[in-house]
Description:
- The protein has helices at residues 2-14, 20-29, 33-55, 73-88, 94-97, 103-131, 147-173, 197-215, 222-235, 245-248, 253-256, 263-281, 292-311, 316-325, 329-351, and strands at 71-72, 134-135.
- It is mostly helical.
- The radius of gyration is 19 Å and the shape is globular.
Amino acid sequence: MLLLGFLIGYTLFHTNYGFASVYKQIFEDGNTEMLRGHMQKLLITTTLFALIISTQTAFFGENPEGALAPISTGLVIGSFLFGFGMNIGSNLAPQAMRKMTGGRTALLFTASGFLIGATIGAPHFAFWNTTLPNTPAVSIAEDTPLGFTGAWLLQTVIFATVIIGTYLHQKRKLPPPLPPMPRGTNRTEILFRTWPIWVGATAFALLNAAVLMVQGSPWKVTGAFTLWGSKLADQMGFDPVSWSYWGEQEPVNELTDSVFTSSISVLNFGIITGALITMALAGLFRFAKITIRMAGITLLGGLLMGYGATISSGANVGAYFSGIASMSLHAWIWTGMAVTGVYTAYIISRKIPFLASK
Length: 358
């Protein structure tokens, strides 16, 4: 898991991917290149997940299961908050991590906010997902007459339609190209140049499938932050064992066990290590001074992201990428509401420039 995490972190550095940034590009200038990359990534991953889960093929005796979650009020509200927060504090995106103008400094505030938000969301989990209206998880492959083949075909048609439609749209609109990503310096420029979008999409798909086969569940991020935050809260005198998240969403024993026995923690340790080492080798591991306004906005954005991701059972990795690839209905609802949150924050930030983190 640590090795897979390292490879994911290395891939994150080399790819022009985000979530809020994909839709901001569409809103601002009509460039749909990154969205087509997302569709390619989802198409490959859905195909691999369908094969792995339907045949129960995995390593170490694991029984692979997709990223399924109930359809609840928490899903709807949390995904909207996540999209809203990511638009105003999206310095967790790979391109923001590599920016030369404060991106990595702002990342510290975004990540800190995410940790705080993910922790605060844990005791509120039952209210949003149990007390308020909810329905059980729905697998498009296993809980409908479609089966794995029909569900795969349905999603493939959706991905293909988006790819073709956005390509024709961009060809007609002729938007400016995507802004260039920073590269390594001097001799490292060749080794650390940005990969083509299709290469990153393929790498992410293969790595997520590998995670599913090794861990028995797909790549997720939020659960690690909630675990780390809950452990810190315990050291500060709080009682995270009583929080509804533990026992309903994740097993309580993770609070008492070492973080190094948690596969999701080990995976994310590897991702952080891989990204940071790659940035350092490329000569891009630098911090710059940022304004108090940017620090506050990115902290707020991270807090909304963390809280929203916890109460909606995932973020743009666990709910969007892994959820859609798992053919879970909740993932499609999550995506629609998160995009709505991104767009809402985009409109508000244009009317209230103070909320723009860039």
